Automatic annotation (TrEMBL):
This is Teichoic acid transport system ATP-binding protein. Keywords: ATP-binding, Nucleotide-binding, Transport. Residues 22-244 form the ABC transporter domain. GO terms for cellular component: membrane. It comes from Alkalibacter saccharofermentans DSM 14828. CDD domains: ABC_KpsT_Wzt, Wzt_C-like. GO terms for molecular function: ABC-type transporter activity; ATP binding; ATP hydrolysis activity. Belongs to the ABC transporter superfamily. The keyword Transport applies. SUPFAM superfamilies: P-loop containing nucleoside triphosphate hydrolases. Transmembrane segments: none annotated. InterPro entries: AAA+_ATPase, ABC_transporter-like_ATP-bd, ABC_transporter-like_CS, ABC_transpr_TagH-like, Bact_Polysacc_Export_ATP-bd, P-loop_NTPase, Wzt_C. Gene3D superfamilies: abc- transporter (atp binding component) like domain, P-loop containing nucleotide triphosphate hydrolases.
Amino acid sequence: MEHSIRINNLTKIYKIYKKPWHRIKNIFFKKTKYKKFYALKNISIDIPKGEAIGVLGKNGAGKSTLLKLITGVATPSSGTLKTEGKISALLELTSGFDNELTGIENIYLKALTMGMQKKDMDKQLQRIIDFADIGDHIYQPVRTYSSGMKARLGFAISVNVDPDILIVDEALSVGDDVFKLKCIERMEEFKAQGKTILFVSHSLFTVKSFCNKCMWIKDGELVDYGDTGEIVHKYEVFLKEERAKQKKEMTEEARNNNKNVQILSKKEVLETKNFKFFNSKGEETNIFDYEEDIGYSFDYIVKKPMKGLKWCFTIRDAEYGEIYGSDKRSENHLINNDMDLKHTLKAKLRNIKLLPGKYHLSGELWDESGAFYVSYSNKKPFEIREEGFKGTGYFYIDHEYEN
Ligand SMILES: Nc1ncnc2c1ncn2[C@@H]1O[C@H](COP(=O)(O)OP(=O)(O)OP(=O)(O)O)[C@@H](O)[C@H]1O
């Protein structure tokens, strides 16, 4: 198999100085203290010729650093990197542009930096101008361009210099829809010609529709590399988990900061116990069929007087991402608040179209003042049994079509 990029044990370390001028100081006094920051750690990957590779990863994961090393804009701290053929890269929208020069002059400047002859660029000039499609702005200094115009010009140059490897970093995010489509079409042509493409995008939809392989980078390390479907799926699961974690932390922080929301120890004010799930026959279980009613109950005792006691519930997925939360303000959720009696709340969630999987149920009891009592939750998740395939995601959505 022919490879266009071979990367072995690639590491990039940035030196972080306490103060910006320490960087300069270090040129003269080598002993200036700095911290090492690993933007890339021991990346090894061989990229075959003719693949369209999506590069996935959160902000700061190291994607741009990797692309900069491949294009030679930055140098590795250790490891080796071999590329075959002419590389054209659109890394940052401003990269390579001289703001004082016009669009046309910048086209020639780029040709120069890519080692192209002027006469070869002369032939491409009209194609680039047509592709960029920014009208008379092409004769104006680039400093007067909007970010969309810069992206147009940058992309137009990158794809019209006949590269063997095309590298595109998020450039499409600033263009309008028509321009995005045009870029994708041009990239499809490249793919058909058997050229190698590296494509960084936060749009998983675009990556899925365009790339046949993907790599996923996290904290400077290569987590996985393989077919797009598989890697995007794993990455989506990871993002979902991250979101759930973040949300949990934010909720806790909000609770800690918000003085209006008083959290009272439930033992002092309210006690809940005996949480149970039951099915439509009244039998205790936490396993349900698709579309079956989910019943649950718990006991509570009110120990201090409170006005307008209400209940609510939340269903979360296996990673604690919220799927549904009932309305906390609803008058329909008022419950009995007589003191010192044991009350039982029985709830029924009807006709649930949740797809097979595990889910968490929890809920709170609120009073009129906004004080809430984290009162009940199932220790074990409830489960919807596997049944005929109904699709992916959380819910079955009824659909129809005409042909
Ligand atoms: N010149 C530099 N000096 C110090 N640290 C840097 C430098 N360039 C990048 N970094 C750090 O290296 C890490 C990786 O940055 P990089 O730009 O490669 O991330 P990315 O995955 O492309 O992120 P994004 O999706 O936000 O563009 C970040 O933590 C960043 O702050």
